[in-house]
Amino acid sequence: MVDNTLSRLARWGWIASLSLALLGLIVVGAGIGAYPISHIDILSHLWLRLLGGEVSGQVDRILFEIRFPRIAASAIVGAVLAAAGCAYQGLFRNPLVSPDILGVSTGAGLGAALGILLSLSIVAIQVMAFAGGLVTVALVYAVANMVRHREATLVLVLAGVVIGSLAGATLSLIKVLADPYDQLPAITFWLLGSFASVRIADVVAVIPAVVISLIPMILLRWRMNVLSLGDEEARALGVHPSRLRGILVIAATLMTAAAVSIAGVIGWVGLIVPHMARLLVGPNFARLLPVAMLMGACFLVGIDTLARTLTTTETPIGILTAFFGAPVFLFLLARSRRGWQ
Amino acid sequence: MAIGITADQLSIGYPERPLATNINVHVGRGEIVCLLGPNGSGKTTLFKTLLGLLPTRAGHVAIDGIALQALSPQQIAQRIAYVPQTQGPIFPYTVEDIVLMGRTAQVGLFSAPSSMDREIASQALDKMQIRHLQDQVFSTLSGGQRQLTLIARALAQQTPYIVLDEPTASLDFGNQMKVLECVRQLADDALGLIISTHNPDHAFAVADQVILLHEAAITAAKPPAEQLTSERLTALYDHPIEVVTLNDGRQVCVSRSGHH
Amino acid sequence: MLHRTLTCVGLLCLATFAFADRTVTDSAGRTVTIPDRIEQVYAAGPPASILTYMLAPEMLTGWPRAHHAYERPFLAPEYVDLPVTGRLTGRGSTANLELVITLQPDVILDFGSIRSTYVSLADETQAQTGIPYLLIDGRFNNTPTALRLLGNILGVPERGERLAGYADALFAEIDAVLATIPEERRPSVYLARGPDGLETGVKGSINTEIIERAGGRNIADYGEKMAIQRNLVNMSMEEIIASDPDIILTWDRQFFDRVYQDPLWADIRAVKQQRVYFAPSAPFGWIDRPPSINRLIGLKWLTGLLYPEHFQFDLKQAVREYYRLFYHVDVAEADLNQLISWSTTR
After folding, report:
1. Which residue of A has its CA nearest to B85?
2. How far apart are the C-alpha atoms of C106 and A43, rounded to whole Å?
3. Which of B142, B129, B143, B130 is nearest to B95 (CA)?
4. What burial letters (b/e) apply to B132-162, b meaning 16+ CB within 10 Å?
5. Which of A10, A184, B27, C307 could form a disulfide with B5 if both were Cys (CB 3.0 to 4.6 A apart)?
């Protein structure tokens, strides 16, 4: 009993300190940007806005229409990718799994590339990205269902690999067809991920999908643990594995597709952050989820601040997450030679 | 309405591979049924079929009179607990976490275990005398300790019936005896248990009824003294075995000495 | 007997002379043996196809890609439907070498970079196909020289001279204007690429050199801070607002239709002063797409945009003349208006 309280304290301790860290990163990030605004100005503008003032003037516009939405988006996307990563790793009983295992990111990239090829508007491109992600995973599920096999998760993964590479091939085809002077660079930039063009409308559009997806994850947090024991054992303990898995895959895919549609393909967050969170608070999903989400938000807010300040031009964020993520991953690999414990 | 797990004319196996037919089994409350059979005979398959984890090829299974097909996984889990042969989870859950997972069938769909659930899990840990292991990561335990944990989990599930798949498999002699004692106690507490084992001596020690699964057929259930004869055991394991009666009336098995 | 033999030998020598080859030197310094008379030219990429089309359209074996519907009114009808023959160099080679051989061109022409990669590509392709491969320097300032060189090679020197003369005159005119305008008084320009307008070309890149040649100051100016010269970059909205360009150029329909209503762009000087211009793209882009000789008209247009008081001319007339001279087409009035709509005012 005493240990229980200690572990609960530990968990809340992590949540509290991560929340503080996130707040700190947001504050620091808010003060950084190509357009110089002092922290005092930021505070005064915030204060006026809170008092119900209107958005007017260039500083206001930069703060409330560019910087804050961008920071909010990076926090949300970081949290979402981490949550999806936790869910996928539990569902597939494999800590090496990223949210893209069923192809949602590749499918979203394909949708966006198609939108760029057809010279559609930005909103249309985002919608196509979102749809592309969902359709790809739906296809994977459909294909997996056609195969009757005892190892349901294995079939899903294999179907994901196949459909994912099919989507990748189609994406390559689109790149060949795209105008090399015009559309091809646009597609390349999109695929590398960036928060540079995020607006309030994007953040607002993404929130419903994220909330809807989070609800089942939170409600089913305990059964998530049971599911990670394996289908047979989980069933013997009283859960319905395929139904649970279906709901959770839908939830994780929905949030990931939404995130990718506004920020492009950002890798490594969904793979690394759940790991690190698991190292801190253990695998219990109820504990793991909030901690991972906070860590993901911190990570991406920090990295995006770097992305817009590291070099004189914007560095695509997918590159930075890889440069940071890969060494961290290798370090984790080397450290946990006792095997993920 | 028959109380107990009843299998009636059951055929088990996989779509490509039938394993055994015409199985009739009954496990009542307070009863221990031992299942003996050589490797690959289908003991685990039979258990999985009884638990509803595998579909029946023919025949019926009923729990306390209710057909298995009419029950959801949660309802089955409220009636039968399963102690499988397992590697354990890939993630570093602690012993406490694992035992607590036994409460899942009693926990609401959208809830997490309550303090009452934790209390029940705690008691199960005490009963199996592994309280001192509660914060250890499951995968760092020895085979025997893992087995005890899984039994504790089944206990936490608080079901009237428990199915144990070779529960003594990786235990040292002392622990084997402890587990057998525990099983006997549970039967005394009016639980119905069905155990598979490789060791006929275990059947002699605790079983009320013994069934032999051999060459796709299952024998009728009989008390160990009747069922476990030297001839039957020799046929079952394809090795000369002799049943010996000790001074106090208990029986044990030994390999038949000398050459044929 | 001897008499007849000598005559035969003499005639034979004459015959060989008639089908004699000549050697020329291309921009990369390669000595290439080509037939005396060239009739068919395979263009290795879009810039080469444009150059050939300008100088000698009848020699063009085909276009690298099919023309979009909106490009067709601005190409001579006899040549607009030439077969699609792919591209040999540049981003994404799509040409089949065997196809190139079956077309039986007299030369393969490449117009663009003369860096060593392309030199080796030229040598390799020449060896593989047995067709002489000419590499012409495609740098914009080299335009008059390129026109003259290729005009001579193709046997149309007067045409080459005429087109080169136009380019020389244009450059001289612009330089004269720019000489009077110091750096600080030159307008700052932002090239908005992509539907969100955040992609742009860096100063000094091939994608924006026309703007700089016309005397505009590209706001994407990173000078020595760039370790490796990049061409295209993504900018953040903040950077653009902070740089506050005088003029914004784009050829993206999505961006252009949105920019005047978009609150994020509203405070930028170019938007406030209604100086966002839509660059024409038919039959070839005026600023880029491809970044080659087709930008001549774009250069003229841009200079007029940037320095209206110093550089005055009738845009429609200039476009008509240019398209007639370079693209062999008389543009219909309606098409002309459509082409340059939004390129001078909103």
Report:
1. A233
2. 72
3. B130
4. ebbebbbbebeebbbbbbbbbbbbbbbbbbb
5. B27
Q: What is the DSSP string of C56-103?
A: -GGGB--BSSPPPGGGGGGS-HHHHTPPB---SSSSS----HHHHHHH
Token reading at B89: 């989870």
Exposure of B43 in the CB half-sphere (CA atoms within 13 A) = 25
pLDDT at residue A2 greater than cutoff 50: no
Task: Give the residue among A76, A127, A89 at the shortest CA–CA distance from A266.
Answer: A76
CA-wise closest residue to B254 among B200, B198, B174, B203: B200
What residue has token string 């040598």? C123
| B76 in reach of chain A (CB within 8 A) | yes
User: In which element (H, E) is residue C13 found?
Assistant: helix C2-18
Mutate which: B90, B114, B137, B164, vs A, most A CBs within 10 A: B90
| Sheet bearing B17-27, strands edge to edge | B17-27, B5-14, B58-63, B66-67
Q: Do A339 and B139 touch (CB under 8 A)?
A: yes
pLDDT in the model for residue B259: 54
Query: Domain C20-169 belongs to what topology?
Result: Rossmann fold (3.40.50)
Instruction: List Cα–Cα distances, B153 to A195, B112, B164, B195, in angstroms.
Output: 48, 16, 12, 16
Q: Which CATH homologous superfamily contains domain A2-98+193-335? A: ABC transporter involved in vitamin B12 uptake, BtuC (1.10.3470.10)
A153-180 tens-digit pLDDT: 889 999 999 999 999 999 999 998 888 8
| Neighbors of chain A with 3 or more C-beta pairs under 8 Å | B, C
**Rounded CA gap, A142 and B157, in Å?**
35
Q: CATH code for C181-344?
A: 3.40.50.1980
Contact at 8 Å (CB) between C38 and C154?
yes
Contact criterion met (CB < 8 Å) for A186 and C226: no
CA distance B71 to C153: 89
Per-domain residue ranges of chain C:
20-169, 181-344
Q: What value, to the nearest 5°, has the Cα angle with vertex C231 and ends A320 and A192?
A: 30
On whether the CB atoms of residues C43 and C61 are closer than 8 A, the answer is yes
Ordered by start, the domain boundaries in chain A are 2-98+193-335
Q: Are B187 and B30 in contact (CB under 8 A)?
A: yes
Taking an 8 Å cut-off on Cβ atoms, the answer to whether A184 and C239 are in contact is: no
Backbone angles phi, psi at C201, to 5 degrees: -100, 140
**From A300-314, C81-95, C100-114, the region with the lowest mean pLDDT:** C81-95
Beta-carbon separation of C196 and A194 below 8 A: no
Under a CB-based contact definition with an 8 Å cutoff, are residues C191 and C243 in contact?
no
Residues 226-265 of C with CB under 8 A from A: 226, 230, 232-239, 241-242, 253-254, 258, 263-264
- In one-letter notation, the amino acid at residue C163 is L
Q: Identify the CATH number of the domain defined by range B5-224.
A: 3.40.50.300
Q: If we measure between CA atoms, which residue out of C282, C297, C237, C230 comes closest to residue C263?
A: C237
The span from the CA of C294 to the CA of C140, in Å, is 10
A149 sits in the region (left: phi over 0; alpha: psi -120 to 50; else beta) called beta
- What is the C-alpha separation between C272 and C103, in angstroms, rounded? 54
Nearest to C43 by CA among C1, C86, C98: C86
A145-157 pLDDT per residue, tens: 888 777 888 899 9
The amino acid at residue B56 is T
Structure tokens, B205: 């020690």
Token pair 């491109």 is found at A125
Token couple for C18:
């008639």
User: DSSP label at A100?
Assistant: G
pLDDT at residue A69 greater than cutoff 50: yes
Instruction: Kindly give, in sequence order, each residue whose CB lies less than 8 Å from that of residue C305, ignoring residues fewer than 6 positions away.
Output: C214, C247, C277, C344
Per-residue pLDDT, C18: 47
Residue among C206, C207, C232, C236 with most chain A CBs within 10 A, to mutate? C236
